[in-house]
Amino acid sequence: MNRRRFLYTAVSSAAMFAGTPRVFGAAAKYDLLIKGGRVIDPSLRLDAVCDVGISEARIAAVETNITAEAVQTVDARGKIVTPGLIDIHTHCARSGEGPGMVLQDGVTGWIDAGSQGADHIADAIAVAKTSPQQGRVLINIGRAGVVSDGDTMDINRADVGALRDAIARNRDFIVGIKARLSRDVAGSNDYEVLRRAQEVATSFNLPVMIHMGQTVSPLPRLMSLLKSGDVVTHMFAPPPNSIVDDSGKIEPAVMAARQRGVWFDVGNGQNGHIRWDTVEMIVKARFWPDTFSTDWNTNSRQTGVIDLPNCMSKLLGYGMTVPDAVARATVNASRIFPVFKDRGTLKVGAPADIAVLELREGNFEFLDNYKGTITGRQRLFPFATVLAGKRVTRT
Ligand SMILES: [Zn+2]
């Protein structure tokens, strides 16, 4: 029984005992009220200053100037209020501390992208199971997970049998397969690794996320193996085998993949995944990402990643609007994995997962993975997180 219902029950039985109807202090209408923020919810095409009322862990009202009483109020004047952020490429499941750390950044849903393979998938799932917010994992096709000598440099590590067994045992927590395909991860096995990943993914009706960039095989050859619903992460990876050619044209195989429903994700990370000159060519060709993601690790705050709001700010200087950036960390991300299907929105009735962000103006340096910097005029900072209707305490 939740607290409000308990309150109502207590009031009515007290009134019954008293024998006469009595009005006790009116119960607050909302458990939590977020007042006066600029509410940006691309799922509702909403960008306006208004209030968000929450009761029983769900969004109860999104209206201008709600005057009803609330148990707790968050003053969001001057802030941006969005659906809770969803980060589809993290390594949150490497450490029990991970989920709580990203929750502070406004991330109310995360995917661990292939930290573990079949051999140690139980470790990653244990973190997902105890995560305060929704967390799920992609299983690495390499049975030993991410390893320094290359996940699938030995093709025997792309063990279809072990992969199948691990997925079959953990359908609730494994939501896809990760195939890391760079030269130093898969060598010349890249195509065969992806073929095996796809064979298993298809039989379970799951997506594959590929880690692209600096592959041995040409990108079009790898793209040809991707189906609708699959995800290409590290889309801003510089050559060789970037998604854009030297003349600034997006590879036709990449255009065709997007056409048939393959998603393109940023996957900021730390090494080899993003270089400003490549970013510039790709956004000039108007090939915007579908989702932002951090490729987060517990050390991210000390790197160019920092947090998801920082990664969301990196394209503002290239002409992306704030609502478009929000869409890529909320509603778009919610469409990729069914576990998030009722998230990424402030629709009345939706679970009350909310990020309150601060958009600061100034000069902000954004780092790529090659020590390159650009200066932006705006940057989003996390301010407060609400998870299942409760404000998260910041540590
Ligand atoms: Zn990663």
Q: What is the structure about, briefly put?
A:
With 395 residues, this protein is an alpha/beta fold. The chain has helices at residues 3-18, 98-104, 121-130, 160-169, 183-186, 190-204, 219-223, 252-259, 276-284, 308-313, 322-327, 331-336, and strands spanning 30-41, 46-55, 58-63, 70-75, 80-83, 85-90, 107-117, 134-140, 174-180, 208-211, 231-233, 263-264, 354-367, 373-387, 390-391.
What is the element layout, followed by pairings?
Blueprint: H1 3-18, E1 30-41, E2 46-55, E3 58-63, E4 70-75, E5 80-83, E6 85-90, H2 98-104, E7 107-117, H3 121-130, E8 134-140, H4 160-169, E9 174-180, H5 183-186, H6 190-204, E10 208-211, H7 219-223, E11 231-233, H8 252-259, E12 263-264, H9 276-284, H10 308-313, H11 322-327, H12 331-336, E13 354-367, E14 373-387, E15 390-391
Parallel strand pairs: 1-4, 1-5, 6-7, 7-8, 8-9, 9-10, 10-11, 11-12
Antiparallel strand pairs: 1-2, 2-3, 5-13, 13-14, 14-15
Bound molecules: zinc ion.
Zinc ion binds next to loops.
